[in-house]
């Protein structure tokens, strides 16, 4: 068995040595601003998204800074209650709709899925650039809503507060979320069609990288869940404009119905956010432990399982909202079931490290951070899925901490892992090894200090969305704010060293991590149509690290700083080696 | 550090529900931590043992193991199901109030909680004084509950969604406009406890906090029967709920049809509460709170057999949530021969004094 | 990839026309799935309230104009037919018939919107609108029957939102069809590459199908109202 990436022109085209200076690539093919704004190249669109979401990440982070600073004192005297409410809403709306949801699918999905499955572009390049414009229009609406006085409804937008009571810019804010939803649908549709119809010859479903599987599952959710929130947002806007609507209790409407519609999207939406991160982790852990993934099929199918079951448990956000007893029983049970595929993934990742040969560059540190933090996030989710405990913990800081452990500890870690893993491929430059490891360590440390105290606060009953609070919670709040400032420094560091790397970084080779994915077959940065030799024929699965990359006749360079001798990869542990007895293909 | 002392390891437990919660909470905490720490240890061991410096760089080609996959699918699932089952039992207790529970109505509005006791005693349990009328400010106090006795709280909101959370009872319920929600407690410890609004409700959301005071049953009885304000609170008294309902019954012209005379155009309400009402088109319904409220809000839905569906619906603008509670309390208290006629010739029913208590702040005794 | 397979209509990133068409069709089917869920939210909400307030919904529905709706249903069903005929013309390479069929489809769709406009005008004239403009007469009629006028307005909220969003879809459809007319006119839809016609027709049939659900839910719900009450 081998990973053969051959061209139709025959074996003569095998291992092309990397030229010292890259030829024309997607970055330097043209330089005008218009060539970027009107591009249909999936790689450039990925970069456009990267720049945009980085801005929203900073903006959302600044809002979080206001929130945490205000909570230093029990009387919350730094900003007014109104300003606080607007700050946490801005934090939620910007981070969720304009950072977390597009982060991995729109940046790395756009950039790498065509390369990973061996094609030149996504199925609908024009739709792809349109999705970025739609996203930016939505973002402009939301940012305008924030700048012109803010929104104070919380990102959940529950009526009748959002429709009748709030005096803030609900309409532009909702409009922003509504419009950006279409961009999410477009990206999801594009990825799904591409994965279905444009895989290279030999790239069967069983050979897809797990990142592609994860994004496929994500896209499924984006396609099927986003329209439902879109219609609920339309109904909110109609009700606010017309002063009457279907959630209006004064004419017999039911505000809880909105919660059903909203969570029908927004619960799956958290899987839109976390699944891509899980995909990244599968790529990075295998690469830096030089191991085949443990339980490929289990991980792939657990992604799909999460996507499907994720649609069936929205009402677990409403256990105390007066839903019927039997509905609560059902939704609690289904919530327990969705924890199982996540657990499967974690166990498989840990098992992948077994008998590996592990190095600790920044992507690996972020991935390990993901696993460590996601375990806490996932297990604390069980407290909220359990009916008896949710009654008390619902809407307290326990939920805030749980959610951030999954979304920030999980997804943002996954995002940084992806950024550091693929940065050399995207930009053709290497960043500082030492600084990036430092950043990973600081972020993980700061994260724990920020959010562990919030679990304790929540358990003691401190409600969320409170600008002021009883004095006994002050110590923990101060600790949390201290952690948040460490976290903030950690997040700023990559901005510095990654930017510097663009100008002063060492030039990256095509495959600096000696990874097996097809995307590493492209030059760094990739040429305009990704591959120099088309079409590819893929003859085996994605993570054949055990066989050794050089053994496959690619002649690729070693990871920087690695101490091993490529010669050791041959022989004893080859396909005929002793590992045969423990090789057991799942599924 | 004093703040540390104020946050014990386990928060104060002041009800049966809190004990049930803690048992379950610590069961989940310990079992899930065991799993989590086990995974951490494995992770750490692998990370150290198989770091590049310790290995030759070559790795075996391990693809997976069906046995292991099945193990770590089924074992967690089984553990999660135990959480589920135990959680469902705790929840079952928490959402089903016992029959004999004393009922207190609580109305949430931006930004205050207004409680009505069965005797008409009212108290505002916290809120933002700047948003209150003078009389509302006067009646800011604590929600007084009896020790070791079940109390049922029935909630409705006048504007947006709120949530009545009492950490010491490990209890929480959304308070929703247009529908009633219920929660019940059996306090087991004397003292004062926080009430928080847990569902974001606007600018002063964080000021919609108050206190619950648990007192001895005897003290509570005195408070209920004598209209005596409790020590340390300023609970205002302005007549019983049923009395207020009686005034409304006359004012809203309910009496025109529900007149308990042979020419009445609608069913007699005397002794209605708790009885079985045959419905038009078959079936029957027990006339409980929910049925009476529904019959006022949506009279066409369940029409009593033998009567024409002529009653108009009364919405929030005609009968507010607070008023509705009063009318229900009145209908509950109606006994044979106590329906007043237009001239109020008949005596008022028991528990519905004809004389309205005038003083807004009676001081001790009657 | 050999240059011989290159067709002028083949986009650069596809291997061949078969792949290109397959992508286009699958993309549209997926888009239709999102549309169904978009309307699904509304249908779900409608179902809940209809079950809660059947009398009010039937009463309110009985005030809508069923004649307009019936005419409009015929327009839309016919337009689906002409749309399908357009695909056939495109397949046969009959440019004249293609343009003609597309134009008839667009005309029927426009007629639908015109009738809808008259219907809205009549509704406004009768104050059949939710909110402060709600007709006092209808409100009183509802109260006299023992119904809650609020829930009558709730039905009207659904009526306007559902037909309004459907109307927006029709207008988008007209735009797409006219764009096809332009493409066909300038000869950009050769018989080997008519998948754009196919894709637009899929969308059009969906818009049509949604109307076939709206019609009974909104107009026919109260058709028998007078009979039982």
TrEMBL record, chain A:
Superkingdom in the source lineage: Bacteria
Residue ranges of the region described as Disordered: 554-587
Subcellular location: Membrane
Domain Cytochrome oxidase subunit I profile: 28-538
InterPro entries associated with the record: Cyt_c_oxase-like_su1_dom (IPR023616), Cyt_c_oxase-like_su1_sf (IPR036927), Cyt_C_Oxase_1 (IPR000883), Cyt_c_Oxase_su1_BS (IPR023615)
GO biological process: aerobic respiration; electron transport coupled proton transport; respiratory electron transport chain
Pfam families per record: COX1
Transmembrane stretches, start-end: 47-67, 87-108, 129-151, 171-193, 213-238, 262-281, 293-317, 323-344, 365-385, 397-422, 434-456, 476-500
Main location group: membrane
Top-level enzyme category: oxidoreductase
UniProt membrane topology term: Multi-pass membrane protein
The entry's keywords: Electron transport, Heme, Iron, Membrane, Metal-binding, Oxidoreductase, Respiratory chain, Transmembrane, Transmembrane helix, Transport
Gene Ontology MF, one: oxidoreductase activity
GO cellular component terms attached to this protein's record: membrane
SUPFAM superfamilies the record matches: Cytochrome c oxidase subunit I-like
Enzyme Commission code: 1.9.3.1
Annotated family: Belongs to the heme-copper respiratory oxidase family.
PANTHER family, per the entry: CYTOCHROME C OXIDASE SUBUNIT 1
Protein's UniProt name: Cytochrome c oxidase polypeptide I
Organism encoding this protein: Frigoriglobus tundricola
TrEMBL record, chain B:
Cited NCBIfam families: CoxB
Pfam families, per the entry: COX2 (PF00116), Cytochrom_C (PF00034)
TM region positions: 24-48, 68-86
Composition bias, Polar residues: 355-366
Domain of life assignment: Bacteria
Domain Cytochrome oxidase subunit II copper A binding: 99-226
Alphabetical UniProt keywords: Copper, Electron transport, Heme, Iron, Membrane, Metal-binding, Oxidoreductase, Respiratory chain, Translocase, Transmembrane, Transmembrane helix, Transport
UniProt topology in membrane: Multi-pass membrane protein
Protein name as it appears in the record: cytochrome-c oxidase
Renumbered residue ranges of the record's region Disordered: 337-366
Family: Belongs to the cytochrome c oxidase subunit 2 family.
Limits of the Cytochrome c domain: 240-335
Main location per the UniProt record: membrane
UniProtKB/TrEMBL annotation, chain C:
Location in the cell: Cell membrane; Membrane
Segments passing through the bilayer: 26-47, 67-86, 98-118, 158-182, 202-221
UniProt-listed PROSITE patterns: COX3
EC number: 1.9.3.1
Molecular-function GO term, any one: oxidoreductase activity
InterPro entries reported in the protein's UniProt record: Cyt_c/ubiquinol_Oxase_su3, Cyt_c_oxidase-like_su3, Cyt_c_oxidase_su3-like_sf, Cyt_c_oxidase_su3_a-hlx
A cellular-component GO term for this protein: plasma membrane
Keyword set, alphabetical order: Membrane, Oxidoreductase, Transmembrane, Transmembrane helix
Bilayer topology term: Multi-pass membrane protein
Superkingdom of origin: Bacteria
GO biological process, one term: aerobic electron transport chain
Residue ranges occupied by any Heme-copper oxidase subunit III family profile domain in the UniProt entry: 25-223
Family under the similarity heading: Belongs to the cytochrome c oxidase subunit 3 family.
Full protein name: Cytochrome c oxidase polypeptide III
């Amino acid at each position: 068995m081998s990973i053969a990436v051959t061209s139709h022109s025959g074996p003569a085209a095998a291992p092309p040595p990397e030229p010292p200076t890259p030829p024309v690539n997607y970055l330097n093919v043209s330089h005008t601003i218009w060539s970027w704004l009107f591009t249909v190249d999936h790689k450039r669109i990925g970069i456009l998204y990267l720049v945009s979401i980085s801005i929203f990440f900073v903006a959302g982070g600044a809002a979080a800074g206001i929130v945490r600073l205000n909570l230093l004192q029990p009387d919350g005297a730094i900003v007014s209650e109104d300003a606080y409410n607007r700050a946490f809403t801005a934090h939620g709306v910007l981070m969720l709709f304009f950072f977390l949801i597009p982060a991995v699918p729109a940046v790395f999905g756009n950039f790498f899925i065509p390369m990973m499955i061996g094609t030149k572009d996504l199925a609908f390049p024009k739709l792809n650039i349109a999705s970025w414009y739609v996203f930016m229009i939505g973002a402009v609406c939301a940012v305008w809503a924030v700048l012109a006085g803010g929104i104070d409804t919380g990102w959940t937008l529950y009526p009748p507060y959002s429709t009748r009571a709030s005096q803030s810019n609900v309409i532009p804010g909702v409009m922003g979320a509504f419009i950006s939803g279409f961009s999410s649908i477009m990206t999801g549709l594009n990825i799904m069609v591409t994965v279905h119809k444009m895989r290279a010859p030999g790239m069967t479903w069983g050979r897809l990288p797990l990142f592609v599987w994860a994004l496929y599952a994500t896209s499924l959710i984006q396609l099927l869940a986003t329209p439902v929130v879109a219609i609920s947002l339309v109904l909110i806007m109609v009700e606010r404009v017309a002063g009457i609507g279907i959630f209006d209790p004064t004419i017999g409407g039911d505000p809880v119905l909105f919660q059903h519609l909203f969570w029908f999207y927004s619960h799956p939406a958290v899987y839109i956010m976390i699944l891509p991160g899980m995909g990244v982790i599968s790529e990075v852990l295998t690469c830096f432990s030089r191991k085949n993934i443990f339980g490929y099929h289990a991980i792939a199918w657990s992604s799909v399982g999460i996507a499907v079951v994720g649609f069936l448990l929205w009402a677990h956000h409403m256990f105390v909202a007066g839903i019927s007893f039997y509905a609560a029983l059902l939704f609690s049970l289904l919530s327990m079931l969705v924890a199982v595929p996540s657990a499967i993934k974690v166990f498989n990742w840990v098992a992948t490290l077994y008998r590996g040969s592990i190095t600790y560059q920044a992507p690996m540190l972020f991935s390990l951070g993901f696993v460590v933090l996601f375990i806490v996030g996932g297990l604390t989710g069980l407290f909220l899925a359990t009916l008896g405990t949710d009654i008390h913990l619902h809407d307290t800081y326990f939920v805030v901490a749980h959610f951030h452990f999954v979304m920030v500890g999980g997804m943002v870690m996954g995002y940084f892992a992806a950024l550091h893993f693929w940065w050399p491929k995207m930009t053709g430059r290497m960043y500082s090894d030492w600084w990036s490891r430092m950043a990973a360590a600081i972020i993980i440390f700061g994260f724990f200090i920020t959010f562990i105290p919030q679990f304790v606060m929540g358990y003691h009953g401190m409600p969320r969305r409170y600008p002021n609070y009883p004095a006994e919670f002050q110590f923990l709040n101060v600790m949390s704010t201290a952690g948040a400032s460490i976290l903030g420094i950690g997040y700023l560091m990559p901005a510095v060293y990654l930017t510097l790397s663009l100008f002063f970084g060492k030039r990256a080779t095509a495959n600096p991590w000696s990874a097996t994915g097809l995307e590493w077959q492209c030059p760094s940065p990739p040429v305009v149509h990704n591959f120099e030799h088309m079409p590819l024929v893929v003859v085996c699965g994605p993570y054949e690290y055990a066989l050794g990359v050089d053994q496959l006749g690619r002649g690729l360079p070693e990871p920087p700083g690695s101490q091993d001798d490529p010669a050791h990869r041959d022989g004893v542990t080859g396909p005929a080696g002793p590992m045969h007895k423990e090789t057991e293909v799942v599924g | 550090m004093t703040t540390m002392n104020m946050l014990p390891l386990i928060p104060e437990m002041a009800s049966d529900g809190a004990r049930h919660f803690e048992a379950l909470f610590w069961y989940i905490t310990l079992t899930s931590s065991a799993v989590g720490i086990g995974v951490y240890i494995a992770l750490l061991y692998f990370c150290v043992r198989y770091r590049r410096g310790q290995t030759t760089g070559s790795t075996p080609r391990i693809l997976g193991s069906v046995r292991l996959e099945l193990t770590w699918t089924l074992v967690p699932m089984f553990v999660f199901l135990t959480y589920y089952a135990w959680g469902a039992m705790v929840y079952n207790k928490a959402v089903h109030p016992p029959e004999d529970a004393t009922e207190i109505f609580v109305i949430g509005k931006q930004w205050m909680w207004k409680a009505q006791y069965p005797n008409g005693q009212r108290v505002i349990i916290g809120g933002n004084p700047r948003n209150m009328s003078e009389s509302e400010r006067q009646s800011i106090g604590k929600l007084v509950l009896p020790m070791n006795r079940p109390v049922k709280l029935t909630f409705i909101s006048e504007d947006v969604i709120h949530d009545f959370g009492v950490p010491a009872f490990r209890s929480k319920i959304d308070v929703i406009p247009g529908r009633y929600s219920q929660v019940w407690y059996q306090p087991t410890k004397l003292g004062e406890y926080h009430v928080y609004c847990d569902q974001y409700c606007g600018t002063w959301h964080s000021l919609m906090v108050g206190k619950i005071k648990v007192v001895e049953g005897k003290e509570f009885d005195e408070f209920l029967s004598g209209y005596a304000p409790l020590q340390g609170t300023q609970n205002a008294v302005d007549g019983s709920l049923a009395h207020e309902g009686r005034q409304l019954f006359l004012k809203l012209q309910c009496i025109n049809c529900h007149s308990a005379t042979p020419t009445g155009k609608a069913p007699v309400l005397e002794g209605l509460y708790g009885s079985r009402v045959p419905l038009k088109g078959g079936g029957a319904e027990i006339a409980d709170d929910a049925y009476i409220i529904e019959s006022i809000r949506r009279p066409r839905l369940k029409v009593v057999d033998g009567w024409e569906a002529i009653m108009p619906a009364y919405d929030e603008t005609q009968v507010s949530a607070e008023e509705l509670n009063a009318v229900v309390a009145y209908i509950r208290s109606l006994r044979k021969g106590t329906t007043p006629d237009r001239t109020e010739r008949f005596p008022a029913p028991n528990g519905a004094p004809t004389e309205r208590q005038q003083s807004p702040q009676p001081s001790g005794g009657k | 990839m050999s240059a011989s397979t290159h067709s002028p209509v083949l986009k650069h990133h596809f291997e061949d026309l078969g792949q290109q068409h397959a992508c286009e069709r699958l993309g549209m089917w997926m888009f239709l799935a999102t549309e169904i869920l978009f309307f699904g939210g509304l249908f779900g909400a409608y179902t809940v309230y209809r079950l809660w307030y059947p009398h009010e919904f039937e009463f309110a529905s009985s005030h809508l104009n069923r004649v307009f709706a019936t005419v409009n249903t015929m327009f839309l069903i016919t337009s689906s037919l002409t749309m399908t005929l357009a695909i056939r013309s495109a397949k046969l390479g009959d440019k004249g018939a293609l343009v003609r069929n597309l134009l008839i489809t667009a005309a029927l769709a426009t007629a639908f919107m015109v009738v809808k406009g008259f219907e809205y005008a009549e509704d406004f004239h009768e104050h059949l609108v939710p909110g402060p403009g709600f007709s006092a007469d209808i409100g009183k009629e509802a109260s006299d029957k023992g119904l809650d006028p609020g829930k009558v307005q709730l039905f009207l909220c659904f009526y306007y939102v559902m037909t309004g969003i459907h109307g927006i879809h029709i207008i988008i459809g007209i735009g797409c069809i006219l764009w096809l007319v332009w493409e066909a006119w300038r000869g950009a839809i050769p018989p080997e590459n008519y998948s754009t016609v196919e894709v637009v027709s899929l969308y059009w049939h969906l818009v049509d199908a949604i109307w076939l659900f709206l019609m009974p839910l909104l107009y026919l719900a109260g058709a028998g109202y007078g009979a039982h009450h």
